[in-house]
Amino acid sequence: MAELYTNRVGLKGGVLPNIPWEDKPVGSTDAVWRYSKNPIITRDHVGSANSIFNSAVTPYERGFAGVFRCDDRRLIMRLHSGFSGDGINWELLQEPISFECDDPEISEFIYGYDPRLVWIDDRYYVTWCNGYHGPTIGVAYTYDFKEYYQLENAFLPYNRNGVLFPRRIRGKFAMLSRPSDTGHTPFGDIFYSESPDLQHWGHHRHVMSPTTGWQSTKIGAGPVPIETDEGWLLIYHGVWTSCNGFVYGAGAALLDLEEPWKVLHRSNDYLIYPREAYERIGDVPNVVFPCAALSDAGTGRIALFYGGADTVTCIAFSHIDLLVDFARSH
Ligand code: BMA
Questions:
Q1: What is d(CA 270, CA 327) in angstroms, rounded to the nearest whole number?
Q2: In angstroms, what CA-CA distances link 289 with 116, 236, 261, 273, 323?
Q3: Given this structure, which CATH class describes domain 42-329?
Q4: pTM for the full model?
Q5: Residue 3 has pLDDT above 80, yes or no
Q6: 288 alpha carbon – ligand 1 mean position (Å)
Q7: 113 in ligand 1 pocket by Cβ < 6 Å?
Q8: How far is the CA of 121 from the centre of ligand 1 (A)?
Q9: Which of 54, 79, 161 to mutate to test the pocket of ligand 1 (most atoms within 8 A of CB)?
Q10: What residues does each domain of the chain span?
């Protein structure tokens, strides 16, 4: 099917002609559509895995690389590297990432989950929910997805969903995060923080709070924000507390380019919500949890990577015009 988008919204970032892609199904009116062969990654990709989900990917060399949340068969949450030529068929390393760090206080690995990945300046940074007397935001960098160098945790516990912006803002590294508590936090707002060196964080600003319906319990940043000429496109997850537990979906917002704590637009409707069997049935049912988005400035195509039901990894597709319109008008 021919694409009818006019590339109205200017997308920053590089061209990515090999972005994974599938056309929108004929007749669909949704802003996001799922890959017809989801899930793309199951527990079978790692011998010791119970589940592989909520994972991050990035363009790397001629293909793609990623950091994958892989809960092992003790149900310890680990992170594994992976590589792919096409972004759909992945090979994951069987051994979890072992972070190098000068300070044993920081490097003792308790657990790590929900990674995000971003290229800034000259290297790839990974942030994740890192166990250190409770969940906080771990930070490391890598050049090759084989050796990883761990930095100081960004914040005091308890915090989750630490997501770096892909460039400095006002001359500083910038991160979104969601202060929380020890367990399955039943609350949470997104905040913005800045750092000159990825070690000292400040200029903390409130970005947004839960509202109603699908995003009434808590919210958290999803993929690394996508820079457009209309603002930062933020895809974020939102949680509804049903009589049977939490339900995780995702929506879209546009943040001011230079003062990203200012929300320009935010969707009332969800963008994607548990619907397919692989999102409804799993270790934690009814979870759609996006952690990465690839974008192609040439065509405006977006590929969204998300976890399904805390068990498998999936892809969905969209176009930057559709996502920006969605954030503005829903
Ligand atoms: C959140 C995180 C996510 C998970 C979600 C649903 O608190 O732990 O990793 O997908 O709960 O269980």
A1: 10
A2: 12, 9, 22, 9, 17
A3: mainly beta
A4: 0.97
A5: no
A6: 10
A7: yes
A8: 30
A9: 54
A10: 42-329
